[in-house]
Amino acid sequence: MIECPSCEHKVSVSANSCPQCGAVLRKPKRGIFGKIVIFAFWAFNLLMVLWIWGGTQNAVESSKGLSGAEAAGAAIGTGLGITLLVIIWLVGAILLGLMALLTRPK
Predict the structure, then answer these.
(1) Which of 2, 45, 103 shows the shortest CA–CA distance to 10?
(2) Does residue 96 register a pLDDT over 80?
(3) Residues 3-31, buried b or exposed e (16+ Cβ, 10 A)?
């Protein structure tokens, strides 16, 4: 048992806050799996930004010397590819975000 610094009430050493006054005694920490999930979430989002940006830049560079129909086909293909990547990004970010939410410290 320890004393609460605010109200000097006896509190268990494993308590996160004082039951008497509600003062925060210690901040809960995320476990190793939670840290891995947070890292995966941020790495996935960074990868998707780089992938979409790089793919768009590559499509713009490769369509510079194309004629009318070829340029239209390249634009449609680029649009479809970016749309697919954005859908993958949204689904992945939602799933990893939910996992991060469920592994937060309590």
Answers:
(1) 2
(2) yes
(3) ebeeeeeebeeeeeebeeeeeebeeeeee
Beta strands 2-3 and 10-11, pairing class:
antiparallel
| Both tokens assigned to 79 | 């649009």
Tokens describing residue 80: 């479809």
Question: What six digits make up the tokens of 77?
Answer: 């293909």
What CA–CA distance (Å, rounded) separates 83 from 90? Answer: 11
Rounded Cα distance, 53 and 33, in Å: 30
Q: pLDDT tens across 4-40, in order? A: 888 888 888 888 888 888 888 888 888 899 999 999 9
